[in-house]
Amino acid sequence: MFRPVRFTGSLLAACLCLLPLARAAQAADQVTFGLDWVAEPEYGGYYQALATGLYKKYGLDVKIVQGGPQVNNAQLLIAGRLTFDITSNAFLALNFAQENIPFVVVAAGFQKDPDALIAHPGRGNDNFAELKGKPIAISTDTRASWWLYLKAKYGYTDDQLRTFSFSLTPFFTNPDDIQEAYVTDEPYLVHQQTGQWPVVMSLADAGFDGYASLVATSDKLVQTNPDLVRRFIEASTEGWYSYLYGDPSPAFAAIKAANPDMTDGLLKFGYEQIKQRGIVDSGDAKTLGIYAMTDARWASFFNQMAAAGLYDKSMNYKAGYTLQFVDHGFGLQSK
Questions:
Q1: Which end of the chain has less neighbouring CB within 10 Å, N or C?
Q2: Which DSSP state fits 87?
Q3: Taking the CB of residue 149, how many other CB atoms lie within 10 A of it?
Q4: φ, ψ at 18 (rounded to 5°)
Q5: Which ranges of 292-335 does DSSP label H, i.e. alpha helix?
Q6: What does the pLDDT look like over 209-261, one tens digit per residue?
Q7: Is 214 within 8 Å of 326 (Cβ atoms)?
Q8: Which domains does the chain have, with CATH numbers?
Q9: What pLDDT digit, counting tens, does each position of 77-134 carry?
Q10: Euclidean distance between the first and final Cα of the chain, in Å?
């Protein structure tokens, strides 16, 4: 914080005249931000910050790069082609530490992981325990992350794995199909197509304690330009509070412009699920602010995964994240 300085008379007038010139001369910092999927309501805070000029307010010129099944933004981040990216889950942060990759998570966008499995009602697939031994379609990335948690907790085996085509067509044609989903998307699409809501088994409800939709960047940027990291996180925080507790229509319009396949109904459903389920603003975020992370929560997740044999218990998992830019209560007053 800068301490206020008193100005009087002609000195004040001269300073005010010079302010626009100083701001114009200072070019905005270029930021390229990669999503882990295409534009959807789950990224609403970022599109809100972009659409309402919050990034510009913080001296940032932000370009949002969409992800998708054929895009690996983690590789683009490591290659230096992105300034920040969305790291889908806490496993990836621990993998940074495990593999000595010089990248670090600086904020947790989701307090609750919105990943889920969906199944048809009335087929005896109503909870995770009942899925043991049954075919389940999941993506390659999921096989290396939360599938390992389900295997350890429910006794699943890799024999159950089926190819996930990033499509609901197999679900619509096979009444025994079980596949991965997001609580904010596929349930609505299934209902639109069939008139029935699917069985939704949320990963968070299974006791999975990991953060999701984390913001990651390079160790180098954190060390050499922490002010840029801070401004990006604070501007995005303001975007999330505006999106969740103000008028989300600027974000909706920006999302639809970026992803013409997005419908008004799916936008509304996803937005309501984010709020109702406390995906962004729950738990520690209620008192520490959106993007909250704590050492205790990270320790709980790491110990949970190490006990399941996924990581060496002696690993320095703290190398995968930093609390430097979160937990300051920033933005709480705007709710």
A1: N
A2: E
A3: 22
A4: -80, -20
A5: 295-307
A6: 899 999 999 999 999 999 999 999 999 999 999 999 999 999 999 999 999 99
A7: no
A8: 11-111+210-334 (3.40.190.10), 115-206 (3.40.190.120)
A9: 999 999 999 999 999 899 999 999 999 999 999 999 999 999 999 999 999 999 999 9
A10: 22
